Each structure stands twice: as structure tokens, then as C-alpha cells.
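User: What would this chain look like folded?
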Amino acid sequence: MAGISIWQLLIVVLIVVLLFGTKKLRGLGTDLGSAVKGFKKAISDDEQDIAKDKQDADFEREALFDKKEQTDRFTAKDQEKTKDNDRV
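Assistant: Here's the prediction, encoded as C-alpha cells.
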């Protein structure tokens, strides 16, 4: 037999309970559960922050692109004015 049978697993669990006691195991389970919950919350918070950063970056990129177009329009108008002034 290569695997662990159900009886061997039960014996190991019984030895662990006898060594540590139910209070310590319950406290360990509670601590482990809170650690997993905190880890999941931290991961979801990071994902939300990343999504928010991507939105902010896209917004800034669009704003900068709009400003570049506005600058190009003003530059073209200034060039036309200087050409008109040169003609006079």
C-alpha cells in the first residue's frame, strides 16, 4: 500500500489532539482563518488599487492628448497670424 489509509489518518489526528489539546487547536484554527481572510482582503484591495490606477492613468493620458490637440490648434492659429502680419 502506497497511500495513507483512513485509519492511519485518524490515528495521526488523535495523536495531534492529545499533544496540543482542543483549545490550542481551536485557537490555531481561528488564527489561520483570520490570516487567510486578511490575505484575501489585501489581495482584493490591491486589485482595486491597480484598477483605479489604470483608470487614473487613462484619464490623464486622454487629458494630455486633448491638451496637445489644443496646443496644436493654437500653434496653427499663431502661425496663420504671423503669416498675415508678414503680408501686411
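Residues 11-74 form one domain. If you want, I can go into more detail on any region.
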